[in-house]
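Summary for the steering committee. One of the milestones for this cycle was to obtain a three-dimensional model of the protein with 1-O-phosphono-alpha-D-glucopyranose bound, which we needed before selecting residues for the alanine scan. The sequence and ligand used are listed below.
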Amino acid sequence: MANLRTCVFPCAGFGTRFFPATKVVPKEMLPLVDKPILQYGIEEARDSGFDKLIIVTSKGKDSILDHFDRTSELERSLRERQKLDLLAEVETVSRMVDLIAVRQKDALGLGHAVLVSKDAVGNEPFAVILPDDVILADEPCLLQMRRVFEETGRPVVALMEVQPEETSRYGIVAGSPDGGRRFRITDMVEKPKSNPPSRYAIIGRYILPPEIFPQLQKTPRGAGGEIQLTDAMRALVREGDFYGYVFEGKRYDAGEKLGYLKATVDYALRHPALADEFREYLKSLFDDGKASQSSRPTARRASARR
Ligand code: G1P
């Protein structure tokens, strides 16, 4: 069985669904409670046995790499002031992983972002995590999928059942259940405008063989005028077994405002230092009708702030 240790994180997108917040700050660096969104993905990869992590960035996104780098001055200052708890937290992040950075110079889509990691990945199977897709799970989603790869030696994508009206936002697969949470995929289509082949959507976790790269090189622009990973995977589906895994856990689309808010609430309610007080605060909003009314901005209050 080939060694599975590389995970690619496409982080080159513009983050337009979160404008204006992401005009300058990369969306991957927005905090989810007290860690940037990307850190959850990095921790998931690390906890799933991946130690070669490749970040695909673009111009203006270097703060992503800085976050996981050493910050000697900050560390010295914290040490001198005996702020040892904070020092430990800062050091944990910089010691967490070593990253390889590659740049996507043209915004040509997810398939292209994966393609630019080709040389860094080499001739080995690898995983891809889309950091926007944050997954809260008892067992890391990628570890659940890794097991399928280790059993079959074949590509695996994460699947989630979505509402019929949501299918046009995702890559959607065709196929049939293959025992337990495993799914045998026979076809897939990126963001179908009509007649989706099922309600199973691809969520941003993939385990792929290096054969995906020549397929990506041949893939023309597809949905949205971009080179789509789904289109390249479709070619692999035709060549051999390809699996989906309906993962256990809750997924948030933290790359858009509502999904981000939901993730923030759920993660805060699990945060050891914040959960109790935050739960009390939320309860007070809903228990006390007056409180919830007064927390709604009125036209007068809104205009007073201008
Ligand atoms: C990407 C993929 C899509 C997948 C989705 C999951 O789309 O192209 O197949 O279903 O991620 O989040 P995006 O959301 O980047 O448009």
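Key point for the committee: The first strand starts at residue 6 and ends at 10.
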